[in-house]
Write a structure and sequence with these properties.
The structure holds two protein chains of two kinds. Chain A is built from two helices and two strands; from the N terminus they run αββα. By secondary structure, chain A is α+β, with helices and mostly antiparallel strands. Chain A has one domain. In chain A, a hairpin with a 6-residue loop joins β1 and β2. In chain A, α1 packs antiparallel against α2. Chain B is mainly beta. Chain B has a single domain, classed as Lipid/polyisoprenoid-binding, YceI-like (Lipocalin). Chain B has an eleven-stranded antiparallel β-sheet, with helices on one face. Classes of the chains: A alpha+beta, B mainly beta. Chains A and B meet through β1 and β2 of A and β3 and β11 of B.
């Protein structure tokens, strides 16, 4: 159990970091929509529309680290599995 | 006698066309391109958003830009940010209170320092800016681009002219009672505004 929790903690923090990096390493807050630019060819006006997309931010990374730390901490509750050898 | 009247009318029409005449441009854009951007750069957080709900009318005469009058309206409910939680906060009664103050407006009352370059006219537009129910007299640098007979290119089947208005200026949120002196590390005091809108005057 102890080992499983520690492995899970590492997997969570690594997955959060990899996803955060893969989605552009957004150093702001997590976004649920992103601006998309459009150009009107006649007037030259650059318009902005928003499309729904999840972009993890530093708060997402912090949440991943927190969950990971909690799991790692919880692993200390469990004792090591010791195989007691008895000799007669 | 009839011929004389017809000639006089034709001459009057030609003269009006040659001199130009004020036209009223409607800024409710059916293509939804018109927009207003706002950006705030606080020490801890940068906020960039836009609004798409633009309407209003402007009376403009390319031959006499000094006579320009009109009002541009931004629907507060259309203010957008990438983060939905920030949008909820921004529209709440603590900040912009969009339920109570549904419009942000600029009403032009005068134009000065006019410089013309081709289709482009730059000028300082004086007017009244109203936000969260508070009105302030302001003069903002503005660029007008008059696109004669270009409406058909934008909206097929329609004839008319287009007027593009671009303006950038800065306001202070404390001047408009938006949480003055509070949370300045996250929400900057200065708000940079940028307006890019096109109005149509069908013939």
């Amino acid at each position: 159990m102890k080992k499983a929790l520690r492995i899970l903690a590492v997997v969570i923090i690594v997955a959060a970091a990899v996803w955060w990096l893969a989605m552009g390493a957004n150093r702001g807050w997590t976004k649920t929509s992103v601006p998309k630019k459009t150009l009107d060819p006649v007037t030259g006006i650059e318009g902005i529309s928003y499309e729904n997309r999840f972009v993890p931010g530093v708060d997402f990374l912090a949440a991943g680290a927190l969950v990971s730390a909690f799991l790692a901490g919880a692993s200390f509750i469990f004792r090591n599995n010791q195989i007691k050898s008895t000799t007669n | 006698m009839n011929i004389k009247i017809h000639i006089m009318l034709a001459a009057a029409c030609l003269g009006r066309a040659a001199l130009g005449a004020p036209e009223t441009f409607d800024f409710k854009d059916p293509k939804g391109i018109n927009n207003a951007h706002f950006s705030l750069d606080a020490p801890l957080e940068a906020i960039n958003g836009s609004a798409s709900g633009i309407s209003g009318t402007v009376t403009f005469d390319p031959a006499d830009p000094a006579s320009t009058k009109g009002k541009i309206i931004v629907a507060s409910s259309t203010l957008e940010l990438p983060n939905k939680m920030q949008v909820t906060h921004m529209k709440s009664d603590k900040w912009l209170d969009v339920a109570k103050y549904p419009e942000i407006t600029f009403e032009a009352t005068g134009v000065k320092n006019i410089r013309t370059e081709g289709d482009n006219i730059t000028a300082d537009v004086a007017g009244t800016f109203t936000l969260k129910g508070i009105s302030k007299e302001m003069t903002v640098p503005t660029k007008f681009t008059f696109l004669k007979d270009k409406l058909g290119q934008r909206l097929p089947g329609k004839n008319g002219d287009i007027l593009v208005i671009r303006s950038k200026f800065t306001i202070k949120r404390s001047d408009f009672g938006i949480m003055p002196g509070q949370a300045e590390d996250k929400v900057a005091e200065a708000i940079d505004l940028s307006l890019s809108v096109a109005g149509a005057a069908p013939h």
